[in-house]
Design a protein that fits this description.
107 residues; mainly alpha
Length: 107
């Protein structure tokens, strides 16, 4: 029997290749768009960004920090799906990289 989302249990993880690149890209774009809408231009200034570690000034760049964190999460996802499973063959890794390239092109 083919695995479908209808038959999928919430505690199981579906392989990334199960999802079309366009759908993955749309989800990433939707998450990014929500974060980018909240960024204020003055928060991107180097003088403010350099003060981000000061206890009373961290809130001044919280939206920029959130976008950086989101970027890092996506990068980690790409890395772990390509390299995180030692049982993957070279062909499996190539297929995963190809999938992420397609996602990136849609983005």
């Amino acid at each position: 029997m083919a695995v479908t989302l209808k038959h999928h249990r919430r505690d199981e993880k579906l392989p990334l290749l199960t999802f079309p690149p366009r759908l993955v890209a749309e989800q990433i774009r939707a998450m990014d768009a929500e974060l980018f809408k909240k960024v204020l231009p003055h928060q991107c200034l180097g003088s403010i960004w350099s003060q981000r570690t000061e206890p009373r000034k961290g809130h001044m760049v919280s939206t920029v920090s959130a976008t950086v964190l989101q970027f890092n999460h996506v990068a980690t996802c790409v890395i772990t799906t390509c390299l995180g499973d030692p049982s993957m063959t070279a062909q499996d890794r190539a297929n995963m990289v190809e999938h992420w390239i397609k996602v990136a092109k849609v983005c």
